Amino acid sequence: MDKSKVKMIERIFSLYGSALYVVNDPHKKKYNEKIIKIAELIVGLFNDEINHSDPIVQRALKMRYQDEMSYDDISTSLGYVNHSSSLRLIKRYFKDLAQALTEEGK
Prior knowledge:
Structural class: mainly alpha
Radius of gyration: 15 Å
Helix content: over 70%
Shape: globular
Largest sheet: none
Oligomer: single chain
């Protein structure tokens, strides 16, 4: 697996919280139209992709990228013993998504 694809997806997802803020801002006219369109694309991509995932993964991704929770807090909320469990869960999701997107592009 090409790690750069995994990193790219992770970086896009990391923009979700800010993009969601722009999309839901009642005063969004203050933003450039291109920023609004990019924010809408990021929110749409995030929602479309996580809707096809396991409910536990959905919760973990929303906690991480929407609620901006730490891996420790996510693990506690999901009942895991340590933070590495939620970290592995999210990293595995990114690897699987990168693989699926690579296969679609062939």
